[in-house]
Design a protein that fits this description.
The chain is mainly α and 363 residues long. Helices cover 68% and strands 0% of the residues. The chain has 18 helices and no strands. Helix 3 crosses helix 10 and helix 3 packs antiparallel against helix 12. The longest helix has 33 residues. The radius of gyration is 21 Å and the shape is globular.
Length: 363
């Protein structure tokens, strides 16, 4: 098991709320509605509610499995599969967190391209964001956790959904439960990518002070995310007809276009650029997880692995040029997230509880 993290490298338990919340407020907030509604129709809010509630069980499993004294998933893998195979599985997790970061970064770059700067080169946007990510991640986990706090500045933007709510039609969400359970479950499955973020808890768990006493903050973060997306999709379904919603690529941005202020002509531009406060920490967290795993499993230090990971991220981000390619990445990340959260984590939990629990001492 790894040595206990030094006190000056740890963070207060309540920072889990910001770390999870910011990861679940990424570029997916702009277009998740049409995907979920494509499966569950006007009952899409029920699908999101089901997914959000089920993930509370996954969070409980993570805290129970990592336990006290605090350890990370690398220690769990080694305990279950042995040192060699456990390290191989842990290295595979680098790929998972890398794809998560790639999806967040490339989805946001596409929005900037389509809505703001169509002629700007992808490498210019990606390069600027990569430099900012390097600056924050190289400062260590406490810096990454501190940057995640800035997502609070975007919360007032969510109140702007009151404007399209006023113009919506309440009858479009009726009748409730008009879709089969299978449709609702399909909608829940396709919405899993908007809840990305709790998986990183498996890596930075040892950096939390008194995690057992502060697990409530992880559940608060998940509850906040669930309520947020349920409200957004209810407003979206009320604002758009089902036919129009299926042909609207970014419903959230389409709704912000109706907002008119005397001092700004295109409010959605402000909305997009404010979201960079979310995207940067959203990418920083999984990238830090990649460097942390590499450091634990190999002898490569973060000052060497971080530039390598970011260069690879930059190169691969440039390879996605068409919308169809980005959609394929989105679907792939969604499937990976489903398997990770509802297969890998429960499997580790069951093995840990059944086979690795402390044996009672003989009197």
């Amino acid at each position: 098991m790894q040595k206990a993290v030094k006190e000056n490298h740890t963070i207060s338990g309540y920072f889990v709320f910001f770390l999870i919340s910011v990861s679940q407020t990424a570029a997916a907030i702009f277009n998740f509605q049409c995907l979920v509604a494509g499966e569950a129709g006007h009952d899409a809010w029920i699908s999101i509610l089901l997914m959000g509630l089920s993930l509370h069980l996954i969070v409980w499993m993570i805290y129970k499995m990592l336990g006290h004294p605090a350890k990370d998933v690398i220690d769990v893998n080694r305990s279950i599969f042995g040192t060699w195979l456990g390290n191989v599985i842990s290295l595979l997790l680098v790929g998972y967190y890398f794809i998560m970061a790639l999806f967040f970064l490339r989805a946001y770059i596409e929005i900037i391209h389509v809505w703001v700067f169509p002629a700007l080169k992808t490498w210019a946007i990606a390069g600027l964001m990569i430099l900012m990510i390097y600056y924050f991640v190289s400062g260590g986990f406490r810096v990454v956790a501190g940057v995640s706090f800035f997502f609070m500045l975007t919360i007032p933007l969510l109140f702007l959904f009151y404007i399209p709510f006023q113009q919506g039609d309440f009858h479009r969400i009726m009748p409730v439960l008009n879709h089969s359970l299978l449709d609702l479950l399909k909608g829940a499955g396709i919405s899993s990518y908007i809840f990305f973020g709790i998986e990183c808890l498996l890596i930075y768990f040892p950096f939390l002070k008194q995690p057992d006493k502060n697990r409530k903050w992880a559940h608060f973060a998940l509850l906040y995310t669930t309520i947020k997306y349920v409200v957004i999709i209810l407003v979206t379904v009320m604002y758009f007809s089902q036919g129009l919603l299926q042909h609207t690529l970014w419903p959230t941005l389409a709704m912000t276009k109706i907002i008119e202020l005397s001092f700004i002509a295109r409010f959605e531009f402000l909305y997009i650029f404010m979201w960079v406060l979310v995207i940067i920490p959203t990418v920083c967290i999984p990238i830090w997880c990649c460097t942390r795993i590499i450091k634990r499993v190999t002898t490569l230090k973060p000052r060497l692995s971080l530039p390598i990971v970011l260069i690879v991220l930059f190169i691969i981000a440039l390879m996605f040029k068409e919308r169809t390619e980005i959609s394929a990445l989105e679907k792939f990340a969604n499937v990976m997230g489903l398997w990770f959260n509802f297969a890998y984590i429960p499997l580790l939990f069951l093995i840990t509880i059944i086979f690795l629990r402390p044996k009672p001492k003989l009197s």
